[in-house]
Amino acid sequence: MTQIEQAEQDDQPLDPAMEKVRRKMIRLQIVSGSVMFISLMAVFGAVVYKAVGPSKTATATNTSPTVPSDAPVAATASLPQGFTIENVSFASGDMLFYGRLANGTRKALVFNVQAGRFVADITIDAR
């Protein structure tokens, strides 16, 4: 009585429709597992890079201009005659003067404060 019949334990072959669904599910499981594995490796890679890579504080101190402790930096930027300033921007010790010359030509002039001179003179040609 307690013995289970052998016929109930044997797996019966699935009909073709169910076999097709089973294969699709296995394929979906493999693809999903692969995506999760790749994502997990990307996260571990980012953590290792962040732990081993260069620190932002070391690079920030190297790129910032040095300010003398006894006096501020004194520099004069001599803009071209008739230059009208439309916008000014400052980043990493460089000042960008954007404007127009007297004849209407648009220019961008980059002035380095530490060097005390213009490092770029860009004429903007809008066609």
Give an overview in words.
It comes from Agrobacterium bohemicum. Keywords: Membrane, Transmembrane, Transmembrane helix. The chain crosses the membrane at residues 28-49. The protein is α+β, with helices and mostly antiparallel strands and 127 residues long. It is 39% helix and 24% strand. The model has no long low-confidence stretch (mean pLDDT 82).
Main attributes?
single chain; 127 residues; alpha+beta; four-stranded antiparallel sheet; Fimbrial protein; membrane; transmembrane helix; transmembrane
- Overall 3D geometry? elongated
Q: What about the largest sheet?
A: 4 strands, antiparallel
Number of helix segments?
3
Helix content: 25-40%
The oligomeric state is single chain
H/E topology pattern: HHHEEEE
Provide the structure class. alpha+beta
What's the arrangement of secondary structure elements?
Elements: H1 6-9, H2 16-52, H3 56-63, E1 84-91, E2 94-100, E3 106-112, E4 117-124
Antiparallel strand pairs: 1-2, 2-3, 3-4
What's a concise summary of this model?
This protein has three helices and four strands; from the N terminus they run αααββββ.
